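Q: Sequence in, structure out?
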Amino acid sequence: MSTHKPLPRWVDIALMPALNVALAFVVGGLAVAAVGEDPFRAMQVLIFGAFGYGEGWGFTLHFATSFVFTGLAVAVAYHAGLFNIGGEGQAYVAGLGAIMVALWLDQTHWVFVLVGSTFAAMTFGAIWAMIPGYLQAKRGSHIVITTIMFNFIASAFMSYMLAQVITRPGANAETETIAETGRLPLMSDFLPVFTFSPLNITFFIGILSLIFVYVLIWHTKLGYQIRTLGANPEAARYAGISAVAIIIIVMAISGALAGLMAVNEAVGVQKRLGVGYVQGFGFVGIAVAFMGRAHPIGIALAALLFGALYQGGQELAFVMPSVSSDLVVVIQALVILFTGAMSEMFKPVLLRLFNRASGEPETVGD
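A: Exactly. Output:
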């Protein structure tokens, strides 16, 4: 019988993900070398593109903000034992609510646009996520299957709405543009170092969302019920916790968080809604949540990493044309592979090392 002591929390949250990311970059470097480029120079270009100048930082933080929203959406559901992979569809439908309210209020002031579009995005995202939650809680439908299906339903629904209902006259499936008076301020309006980047004040909503989820999960009665249900559904039932109510509430919160991405992308940056504006960020949120161990601090760091990969990858493809955008996607996929599906790869080695350092025997007989 194994007597391994559990790994320290910092090892599980920080060290193992760091080792997985390092391995992903090593394998990615081999792929870069295979096309005849210097992997060390490629790494320098990628890091400089993400963090070497103000505009790069702005793009990195902009992408990271969206990943924070979708990562938190996955994490909240995960704590309740649910695997919400419908963030893509929830964010897509939330864009409809966000842009409708933004266009309605864009002749007033950006504060009203921000508040109104945020509330609308959260509401639409919550409603879209509550439906699979209800089906899981009341009908026994598996949340993974229903959220996958609702991604496709959302895509078809939004394509129809954008092409036939709310499209701007003469445009190809996109809405009107938000008027100048209602546009959200860019961070470059306050900090010139971010000039030419899309980073906007939604960044602060991302920070508030991280704090909100931390307080919710670890410092509220509802958070305790969520974690109890996720850890042991039977114990939760004996404790009088309603699984039906918790599942529906959790999915609503999860969908609302995913919906906030619409405020950042559609209202804050594109200032209109177009087909496919989500760009797969909902799926990236799954990797962000698991790499961050479903903890807000870990999610913030993972979101920053993926933001750097997106921005640095664009710089890499521009500076080193032989490293195509497809190869950049391969590097991103390797990070997802090693930090997601193979995230526990280093755990046995680390367990042995830490137990040996503490003087604990590795195993004892039955």
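Residues 110-139 form the longest helix (30 residues).
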